[in-house]
Specification:
This protein has 122 residues and is mostly beta strands. It is built from one helix and eleven strands. The mean pLDDT is 96.
Length: 122
């Protein structure tokens, strides 16, 4: 089992910034990709960013140029800093540990956090 503890989020004014962090704990052997997804009301969940163990990342185009993400493998933690936030960034943000292997399982599976709400509004 992998537990994901998320922090950050909240109400931010347009043009503002925020940082989300997520730490994975448990009997983890490895996590193939660690990152963030988001889901706005009435819309499908979409990937914001995922970071592989070697640092390679995949980004959502609409946030890539105004965001920074970092994965700390020693802490199984991922950070997402989003700048110049827009109302369309409003969503529930979910931490994801993808294709994770633990000492208690023979295969890999995906794990999800409970989500943290980000609202961009005046």
């Amino acid at each position: 089992q992998v537990n994901l503890a998320e922090s950050g989020g909240g109400l931010v004014q347009p043009g503002g910034s925020l940082t989300l962090s997520c730490t994975a704990t448990g009997s983890i052997e490895y996590i193939s990709a660690l990152g963030w997804y988001r889901q706005a009301p009435g819309k499908a969940r979409e990937r914001v960013v995922t970071i592989a163990g070697n640092g390679g990342s995949n980004w959502l185009d609409s946030v890539k140029d105004r965001s920074v993400a970092y994965r700390d493998n020693s802490k199984n933690t991922v950070y997402l800093r989003m700048n110049d936030l827009k109302p369309e960034d409003t969503a529930d943000y979910y931490c994801a540990a993808l294709r994770a292997k633990t000492t208690q399982t023979s295969g890999v599976r995906d794990y999800w956090g409970q989500g943290t709400q980000v609202t961009v509004s005046r």
